[in-house]
Structures are given as C-alpha cells and as structure tokens.
Amino acid sequence: MICFCSVRRVLFFFFCLSGFCLNWHFFLADNSRTRALSVRDDEEGHLICRSGDVLQERYEIVSTLGEGTFGRVMQCIDHRRGGAHVALKIIKNVEKYKEAARLEINVLEKINEKDPDNKFLCVQMYDWFDYHGHMCISFELLALSTFDFLKENNYLPYSIGQVRHMAYQICLAVKFLHDNKLTHTDLKPENILFVNSDFTMSFNVEKKREERTVKSTAVRVVDFGSATFDHEHHSTIVSTRHYRAPEVILELGWSHPCDVWSIGCILFEYYLGFTLFQTHDNREHLAMMERILGPVPSRMIRKTRKQKYFYRGRLDWDESSSAGKYVRENCKPLRRYLLSEAEEHHQLFDLIESMLEYEPSKRLVLKKCLPILKSKERVKRR
Q: Where does ATP bind (predicted)?
C-alpha cells in the first residue's frame, strides 16, 4: 500500500458562501522594503493580486485555491498566527455581495461566540475586514471536500465505517446550529470538507484500477452564506436541488428539518457514490421520491399551493413517458440500494430512512441519532 499526500487544498465552500469584497494595499513579506500597489479590480470586480503580495501587513498571498461567482479564495501565510497557512476569501467589489457578506459574518460570529473552542465542527472564522470596498474573511485552511475526494476517486463510495463517522460529525455540527436557532439550508457533500484529505492508494485487481482511501474522516461543515436564523425571513426556495426537501419543493414552509433531509441524501451519496435524486425538475423530483420512498402524504398534497403537480389527490405523472421510463429505470425502493445484508448496513439505512421522512414533523430530530452514531463510532473504522 502506497501513501500519498493531497497537495492541493481545495476550498469550494468559500466561493459558494455569500460574498465579501475587498481592495487592498500590498507590502513585501520580508518587511525590508515596502511597495504600495494600486488597488485595482478586474472587469468582473475581483481584486487583482499575485503571489508574494502582502495585505494588512499580515496576509502573504501564496496561491489561488479557487474562484467562484462571488470572489476568490487565496491560500495565505498569516504572519500574526505564527506563519500558519489560512484560507482568505476575497469577494468582488459589488454591493449585493458585500451585503451578503455582512449577513454571513453575522452567522460566523455567532458560531464563534457559541463555540469558541470549535468543538462542534463548523468551519472556524479567524478574522474579517473591509479593505477599500472589498471584504475578506480568514478561515482555517481545510482540504478537499467530501465530494471532490469522491470525484477524484472515480466515485468509489466511502466504507460503511467512514460513512458512519462522517454522519456523526455532520449531525453534531448541524444539531449545534439548530440548538442556536440556525438552519444551514445548503448542506451537500461539497460543503463538508476534510480537515486533511491525505490518502493511501491500492490497486483493485478485479476492477483494474488504483483506488484511494482517505486516512482520516475528520470533517468540518462549511458555507454559511445561506444560513438563516429562526426569526429571519425564510426564502421560499432553499437548498441545492438534489438535497432539497419535499416541503421546500411544495412551498409549505421550512425550518430545521430541511437540513435533516439534506443529511439523509448526503449519507446515501457517501454510501453508494452517486446522487439519490439526480434531477433538475420539480415534478420529476417528486416522482423519484415516490418511486424510492412511497407516495407523498395526502396532507401535504392538500396543503400545498403547487396543485399543478397533482391530479385528484395524486402526483400527476405519466409513467409511460420518456421521463417516466427514466425514473422507473434509475430509481428503486430505498432498501434495494443496500450493498450488504449485514446489520450495520441496515442500521445506516434505518437512519437514512428516518431522515427522508416526508413530513417534517415526523422527520428524525438530530439529538436522537447522536447517541446511536457515537456508540457505533467506537467500532473500528475500515
């Protein structure tokens, strides 16, 4: 077995988060001389910067980790943290992104206040500031997202032990959010990052390919750009499509349970290596749910304003259409996805099933699953 290190540090979540924009002054890192750089943005509003530039006489730019709609993420040396490497999120100089940044910072400050020791596994914000119209946030430097690792490993599923360990950590983090009157609203594998994604590699003789096994499944929950406090306005539509709860699709209102649904979808994806609800259409999404989980409850059908999806109290879906054939061929009842009849596999599906309960009021409450997952976590992870 050969040991490898993930050299690339990918922080997808930083540019999925709501925006923060900043303009800067730069100085040479060795402090022997300084050079004032003009504060310039490119045509899209990104701050123009390069390796070796230093901002705030503190953050030395090392490399670009990624770029997204709202800005860029840079790997930096923080000279006030003993030369530690951090991730600095730099957002475009656009007012709507700046406002989104203020909202996100509010959430991150609340998390820091309630969990100063980072016991509850939400990504830690170190610092934030506004610089010439741009805002930037300094975060702990994390590794690949659980999605990116899966993708780079040819979508080879995680082992049952790894899934269980990650499930415990995700549930712990999200329960902490719920206890503090927050709903994340955008949980997905891209927003669960490994602390360290170093891996070992072995050759699968049967499949004739190299396969990676992550050494440590310690993770952090990231991307609080869409997180919503209980007392705040709740947008009608939240969550990335594949992880969106039925009450959101049917516009019945949402709260903490929509996060639990998303976690159920995430755990399925870790276990199988593919998305449970692979669709971009509401009607087809509901049809997939019915194929996998059974009929949508009549109470939800009666209550929804989205009656166009139903006819005479049932989902209006043509199973003989090409879309109907696609759903029939690509979806099956949940338990038929089991890879093993071993007890621990059935226990995982018990958990997933309780998270994918249609009715939000009947859906699993996270505090109930933590003791079960914690006891299982003691079992040797393979």
A: 89
